[in-house]
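User: Could you check the structure of this?
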Amino acid sequence: MVDRIPQRAWFRFEPAQGGPARLGLLHEGCWHDLGVVLGAQAEQPLACLAQGWLQGKGLNALIQRLGPESRMERPGAFLLPIPQPSKVLCLGKNYAAHAREFGVEPPKEPLFFNKLPECLRADGAEIPLPKDLGRIDHEGELVLVIGKEGRNIPEQEAASFLAGWTIGNDITARDLQKKDRERGWPWVRAKSIDAFGPVGPWVLPFEDLFEKEIPLDATPDLGIQVRVDGELRQDSRTSLLVHRVHKVLAELSRYTTLRPGDLVFTGTPEGVSPLQPGMKVEVEIEGIGVLSNRMTEG
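Assistant: Sure, the predicted structure tokens are below.
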């Protein structure tokens, strides 16, 4: 895949000169410090999302205010784009081939579970693998970023509630998940171990993935790959999602209020495989970028 650096994306970073972490914007090959434009507001990504600065007309207006004084060097490291989302929601078995590699058919209704926000980590962060958990797998995924509050969202309006797209790795303690599933328990233990949710490196504005009109199902057709130490392990397309983005948001919002900054992992394709300390895992999604993390001993 190509175009690893998008035309537009927003991110969080720590200023080289010191001070609080804040938002930045990549625009047409230039990196900008949004603290110069938004002041202290740039330190509050959830508030910026809620106020509409990071998508649509608000983002376009913000771009008009950029100038030479806001330019900066590319950050040496990226922080979590959303440091404290209220929820991290996920879909299981949302690619048919992934469901079948575990011997089942994809569910007719979306299968939801959650990861605890404390498991989130940034691009480049080390991921410790506890020694006593048995098999631990990578699961590369397209992640939705919610842009505004919504409950009982109609399918045809789902796109208006999305701020953007990012990349996630739903790292899973597979043996623990199997044990809990056999007991009829939820998956939260296997999915929410500290550092088992890297996300990043940035967020692509929602509308930037569609060249023309936004499709009714709000679902892009993007290549998604996972490489482990350079070896291709997962290779699919987001157009193969069983339950499309518009249906996912409509169904989720029947039961819970979605809020700005909430993250929705949309499911992983086939090809999951075990991880070991020392391995470097790269999740690449066409048009968005690459999320990279090194596994370490836990």
